[in-house]
Amino acid sequence: MRPVLVTAGATRNPIDAMRYISAHSSGRTGVAIASALVVHGCRVHFLGSPEACLRANAIPSTEEFADTRDLMERMEIWVRANPQGWVIHAAAVGDYELAGSAVGKISSNLETLTLTLRPTPKIADRVRFWSDDITLITFKAAPPLTDGESLVKICRKQLERTRSDLVLGNVLGSLATTTTLVDDSGSEAFDDRAEALHALAARVAHT
After folding, report:
1. Residue 144 domain-assigned?
2. According to the model, what pLDDT value does residue 191 have?
3. Structural domain contains residue 28
């Protein structure tokens, strides 16, 4: 059975020595997938945020990441070492970072504070450059009120851009009830997120 890398939780892109920009992501989804795969007998390496790793008690192999670039570096190391494995990239990756070095501590007495940010690398777009033989599953969160048909279109664009084998799509505001799996052969909609995650884990475990 091929090895599996699961990423989960949110990156923390620093703005000074104490503060960072992050997303609302606990890592529960990645933990659930990785735990299910362990039960199926898969050899799983879990790469998570500090919060996500605290939830990953049932996963024997875990590793923490910090900011977006740290996550990217750790993923690249794993993929190059396991070029025919699976990557399930469920982490909430920060799209922006401070333009410049996050040095010292910004004063808390300022009346206003302006930060200049720059885009971070798109990790999902780079995985195929590390190994063309990897099997890649990525996640996409669509804006609130996105309908099912539009969600599939959004996921298909990500499928093509990242050259993913499968994209799991959700709609913000209805994460528990609006989920779809999209691959080259079509799409499958789910009214329950847990069912979608179970279907995803089963597909990985039995391939």
Report:
1. no
2. 86
3. yes
Asked which of 11-15, 109-113, 159-163, 176-180 is least confident by mean pLDDT, the reply is 176-180
Q: How many domains in the chain? A: 1
**Which domain does 60 fall in, by range?**
4-96+112-138+196-205
- Listed in sequence order, the residues at least 6 apart from 107 whose beta carbon sits closer than 8 Å to its beta carbon are none
pLDDT tens for 125-147 read 999 999 999 999 999 999 998 98
Has residue 181 been placed in a domain?
no
Rg from Cα positions in the chain: 17
pTM: 0.93
Give the CATH number of the domain where residue 86 resides.
3.40.50.10300
Is 42 contained in some domain? yes
For 43-91, the pLDDT digits (tens) are: 999 999 999 999 999 899 999 999 999 999 999 999 999 999 999 999 9
Burial 75-98 (b: 16+ CB within 10 A, else e): bbebbeebeebbbbbbbbbbeebb
